[in-house]
Amino acid sequence: MEDPSKPEQRKKKAYLNFGQPGHEDEYVLHLADDDIPYDMADKIKEILGENWQVLDRGTRIEIGHKRKFGLRDDKKVSGAVEQAISDKYKLHK
Question: What is the pLDDT of residues 21-48, one digit of tens each?
């Protein structure tokens, strides 16, 4: 049973996946039961830097490297996402 006094258990779930159908070369971030907060994509972009493309699609955020064939860096991307969402969401990979 969940203990509502523990902040980690009160956070909403966020899901980060790489290579979903239609998104084979990028990460997709989904937030449970919410639209994407207006500044979340900007926070992720700021943390990742200029070599990454971060697009807010309203119900998801798409994250991909700007190189033609993309770059997969699970540790860097998940760390940036966790840092950007940690106040409200818990990331499930």
Answer: 988 889 999 998 777 888 999 999 999 9
- pTM listed for this prediction: 0.84
* 54, β-bridge pairs: 63
Query: How far is 28 from 2, CA to CA, in rounded Å?
Result: 28
The ranges assigned to domains in the chain are 10-92
* Beta-carbon contacts of residue 43 (< 8 Å; ≥ 6 apart): 83, 84
Contacts of 85 (CB under 8 A, 6+ apart): 14, 31, 40, 91
The answer to whether residues 64 and 70 touch, using CB atoms and an 8 Å cutoff, is yes
| Pairing relationship of beta strands 89-92 and 12-20 according to DSSP bridges | parallel
**Residue 29: enclosing H or E segment and its boundaries?**
strand 23-31
> Is residue 8 over pLDDT 60?
no
- CATH level 2 (architecture), domain 10-92: 2-Layer Sandwich (3.30)
